[in-house]
Amino acid sequence: MKVLFIGGTGKISAAVSRLAVARGIDLYLLNRGERLPDIPGATPIRGDIGRPEEVRRALDGHRFDAVVDWIAYVPADIQRDLDLFRGRVGQFVFISTAATYQKPPLHPVITESTPQANPAWQYGRDKIACEELLLRAYREEGFPVTIVRPSLTYDTNFPIAIGGWDTYTLPDRLLRGKPLIVHGDGSSLWTVTHSEDFARGFVPLLGHPQAIGHAFHITSDEILTWNQIYTTIADALGVEATLVHIPSETIARLEPSLGAGLLGDKAWSVIFDNTKIKTFVPGFTATIPFHEGIRRTLAWFQADPARQRVDEDVNATMDRILAAWGRFTATL
Prior knowledge:
39% helix, Rossmann fold, 2 domains, 15 strands, seven-stranded parallel beta sheet, alpha/beta, two-stranded parallel ribbon
């Protein structure tokens, strides 16, 4: 099977790329050529997806059984993909997001048929619009789309709501005994998924003829509170976490850039029903519990001091919110 990934070396997609190659898929990675993808066995194709004519030339003569766009975010990206791949692909997989699901949720159990609406977060609304454009192309012209909606997935990053998810900022704060911000009272329910588990559900969908026209989410079945997520990271570091609970709405007022992702996603308790992906991919189950997966993440960061970057802007934002909350609570 010949497959093209647009992207394919990111936080989620790198694990998928490695598994695809391991399972014998003839994998091509579209890359601007600024740095070669570190995916042994994959074939790089040089081209900038932001320059469609350049990509069209780079792909001349190729026809793929499946194309996956990991980096499409707005409808213009999807229209570009439709123009590029009509008639030359057996399946087009769009990486959407579980943030498209109804916020606030009216039912805590999320299935693929849960309504889609996200008034708080433009990112979620843009992904909904992308899905709608693709599904219209499927209905009207038979464009072979499959939609996949990851939730909070991690590997070489920290699956957190606040604290700098792709840097070493949060572990550094923990090691220095500095407080962490947890939205709400920390008791809302959430699911984090290791990228290798996601890959085991995703790769069998490639070339799956019955997946055309369908949407799937792929997550762990492990349910944690946010308090558990942060304290599990602290436990893996061998330290005790100091958690400061602040209402999500207050965080949103103090720092709007954080508020959209909270009110449009992480502030709400959700439980993902993975029945559908398990039906299409028999035997799929997530096998990496968070207490194990986060130790792998920490080991990856600690293996190279260059990876242990601390984002002082993130620190400053957290300290500013904590100071404002401290002044408020002092008046109570």
